[in-house]
Amino acid sequence: MPLSIVLAALFAVVLWGASAVAAKIAVVTLSPISVALLRTIIGGFAALFVAVIMRVPFPATREQRCLVALSGFCGFVGFPILFTIGVKLTSANHASMILATLPIFTGAIAMAWDQKHPQRIWWIGCAVALAGEAWLISSTDSSNGQQSSVAGDMLVLLSNVFASLGYVVGGRLQRSGYAATGTTFWGAAIYAVVLLPFLPFVSGSVELSAASTQSWLAVLYLAIGVTIVGYICWYWALGKGGIERVGLMQFLQPVSGIILAWLLLGETINAQFIFASVLIFLGVAIAIRAK
């Protein structure tokens, strides 16, 4: 796999690894639904501006437009809403580690879509990683006063399904010749327009004006860094390097999230968390050997 593809995928993974910490900071003074809508609306209108300036073509065919709409809904509506509510209910450490299951869903959806059959070693690796996720969710801990919860963990896990489906659709668009910039910019822009009328009913002016500077900076990071820059790099890498192979790099996503949760939020880890993390990373080491 060319180094440029690996670096693009890793850059996206690092950006996304910090998303749990950013969401945790944002929901301190903003509701989870407000954060989810704001990240898509701000990111979407920024994407629309860039798309017009760069003259990024709108999808030409009906099939491409449908795929952009599906990818956009999964990545800019379903995932952020479920993920942000889940982060509110659990610790950033738990949310970061649960995101490590993204390659399993991404690879499974991609192979089912293309009617491919994975190697046995892929199944073994995924089984080990999922066992680690099950151990993590079944255990609870308290990190700097933040108690993890099964409900929050399950919402984050469910959000992975939406994110993974969006990745697969975006990767297929890239392979079909439609640029990753178009998939990201137009997908985000469409749902920014769709969600904007709902914002006054979800976020009152009092809530928005009372939000802290840290919360707004976290929202901007989620909107620009995660929603725009991260998706462009990731879709490009998926299209060039293959969904099944590049998707496995998402197992590395929790690393930056755990480090930042420790540095910025003061969250700590316990023996159960370490054991679950070892199983998850062992699973990726096994699965990544599969073709």
Your description of this structure?
This protein is mainly α. Helices cover 78% and strands 1% of the residues. The chain is built from 15 helices and 2 strands. Strands 1-2 form a two-stranded antiparallel sheet. A hairpin with a 2-residue loop joins strand 1 and strand 2. The protein is globular, with a radius of gyration of 18 Å. The N and C termini lie close together (12 Å).
Defining key terms:
78% helix, 291 residues, mainly alpha, globular, two-stranded antiparallel sheet
Summarize the structure.
The protein has 291 residues and is mostly helical. It has helices at residues 3-17, 19-26, 32-54, 62-89, 92-98, 102-113, 120-138, 150-175, 180-195, 199-202, 205-210, 213-241, 243-247, 253-265, 271-287, and strands at residues 142-143, 146-147.
Q: Quick one: how many beta strands?
A: 2
In terms of structural class, how would the helical and strand content be classed?
mainly alpha
Low-confidence stretches: none
Helix residue percentage: over 70%
Counting DSSP H or I runs of 4 or more residues, the number of helices is: 15
Mean pLDDT: 84
Determine Rg (CA atoms, Å).
18 Å
Q: Which assembly state applies to the chains in this document? A: single chain
Order of helices and strands: HHHHHHHEEHHHHHHHH
Strands of the widest sheet, in order across it, are 1-2
Strand content: under 5%
Name the overall outline: globular
Q: State the separation between the terminal residues, measured CA to CA.
A: 12 Å
Main pleated-sheet profile: 2 strands, antiparallel
